[in-house]
């Protein structure tokens, strides 16, 4: 039986926040490939904004190479998306060895690609992807951070991560010393699903019940993004804030 054709409506917003002078977050959409991206310059890196902008500008070419449109129904499609992210990270590191502008330029990256009735997700770092479905908010990514590693080792309670001093220490990121190994996964989509991609400037200050409540109160992606940004700013906005919301519908 043929899968139902799905379509998407989307919007994104980025904000410098309340305590930063520069916005090092970036978002991007390649509508021809149904490819969505959020990147966040790694704190302390020399030029996170340059790295993040490069990620959203260049990733579509890597995805087109590793995952041509006629091969997106293959069982290894998510693995190929992850390979595209990993290769871009390794190439960014190599570029930094020859181009002083990129020396120390690092960022996170989370990307989602609609492939028919499936969503492919890949990431490096702590920018996240969420699914809102049937009144449940499901995190689709696992943070590559020191504090997440401590949670996994049962050394830190998940409820205490927001204030932990290691919360923002990323263990994987774009431009890291090769080989980079992005995490990748596949999700079967349904009409009515909503996808949120965001930087830690949002999920780090607005807890998941708050994210779910805002999504439910704002059916339009643009309004949802604006409300998410406003909530993060109201919570102090200590970091740059980026939200990209995708509504999945029947084609």
UniProtKB/TrEMBL annotation:
SMART domains with a match to the protein in the record? PP2C_SIG, PP2Cc
Q: Which InterPro entries match?
A: PP2C (IPR015655), PPM-type-like_dom_sf (IPR036457), PPM-type_phosphatase-like_dom (IPR001932)
Residue stretches making up the PPM-type phosphatase domain: 9-248
Example of a GO MF term: protein serine/threonine phosphatase activity
Q: Which residues form a coiled coil?
A: none
Which protein is depicted? PPM-type phosphatase domain-containing protein
Q: What organism does the record attribute this protein to?
A: Mycobacterium asiaticum
Q: What is the lineage of its organism?
A: Bacteria, Bacillati, Actinomycetota, Actinomycetes, Mycobacteriales
């Amino acid at each position: 039986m043929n899968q139902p054709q799905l379509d998407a409506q989307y919007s994104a917003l980025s904000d410098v926040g309340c305590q930063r002078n520069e916005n090092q977050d970036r978002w991007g959409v390649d509508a021809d490939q149904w490819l969505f991206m959020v990147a966040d310059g790694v704190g302390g890196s020399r030029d996170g904004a340059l790295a993040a902008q490069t990620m959203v500008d260049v990733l579509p070419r890597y995805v087109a190479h590793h995952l041509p449109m006629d091969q997106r129904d293959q069982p290894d499609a998510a693995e190929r998306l992850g390979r595209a992210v990993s290769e871009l990270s390794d190439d960014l590191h190599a570029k930094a060895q020859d181009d002083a502008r990129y020396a120390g330029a690092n960022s996170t990256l989370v990307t989602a690609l609609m492939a028919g009735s499936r969503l492919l997700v890949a990431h490096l770092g702590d920018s996240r992807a969420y699914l809102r479905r049937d009144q449940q908010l499901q995190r689709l990514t696992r943070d590559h951070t020191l504090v997440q590693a401590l949670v996994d080792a049962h050394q830190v309670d998940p409820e205490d991560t927001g204030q932990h001093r290691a919360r923002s220490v990323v263990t994987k990121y774009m431009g890291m010393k090769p080989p980079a190994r992005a995490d990748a996964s596949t999700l079967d989509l349904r009409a009515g699903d909503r996808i949120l991609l965001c930087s830690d400037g949002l999920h780090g200050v607005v807890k998941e019940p708050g994210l779910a409540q805002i999504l439910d109160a704002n059916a339009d992606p643009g309004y949802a993004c604006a409300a998410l940004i406003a909530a993060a700013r109201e919570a102090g906005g200590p970091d740059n804030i980026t939200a990209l919301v995708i509504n999945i519908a029947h084609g």
